[in-house]
Amino acid sequence: LIGNDISVAREVRLIGGRRLVVTDPFEGKGSHKLASRIHLHPGIGSRPEGPGKARLSNGVIVSANVPLTLEEAPFFPWFGVSRPRGVITLSHDSRLPAVLSYSIELD
């Protein structure tokens, strides 16, 4: 995605010791499909709690400014071994400039 005169400068902030906020401001021109992925540890499950919200099995809540989907991707703990793990994907078709943002918060 980055290239063709598109840039992003990720900002990460810790708020109050319990909430991590990640903001991806995309700069450029035209319409694009923007995406950001959060790869979970294989031992952590997730379930949706609304279009822009998911709850993890460890009590963490992920909230986004766009709809998110819960997907599965491979995790390779060592050579030749693959295990499934969850991936939270934020995806949005937008004209630039635009912002994708999510927070990870202890419940």
What would your notes on this structure say?
Strands 1, 2, 3, 5, 6, 7 and 10 form a seven-stranded antiparallel sheet that branches. Strands 4-9-8 form a three-stranded antiparallel sheet, with no helix packed on it. The protein is globular and about 40 Å long. The mean pLDDT is 93. It has strands at 7-8, 11-15, 19-27, 31-39, 46-48, 53-56, 60-64, 68-78, 81-95, 98-106. It starts with 6 loop residues before the first strand and ends with a strand. It is an all-beta fold.
Explain the layout of strands and helices.
Layout: E1 7-8, E2 11-15, E3 19-27, E4 31-39, E5 46-48, E6 53-56, E7 60-64, E8 68-78, E9 81-95, E10 98-106
Antiparallel strand pairs: 1-3, 2-3, 3-10, 4-9, 5-6, 6-7, 7-10, 8-9
What would a concise description of this structure say?
By secondary structure, the chain is mainly β. The protein has strands at 7-8, 11-15, 19-27, 31-39, 46-48, 53-56, 60-64, 68-78, 81-95, 98-106.
N- and C-termini, Cα separation: 33 Å
* SS strand fraction: over 45%
**How much is the average pLDDT?**
93
Largest sheet, if any? 7 strands, antiparallel
Q: Which key terms come to mind for this protein?
A:
0% helix; 107 residues; seven-stranded antiparallel sheet
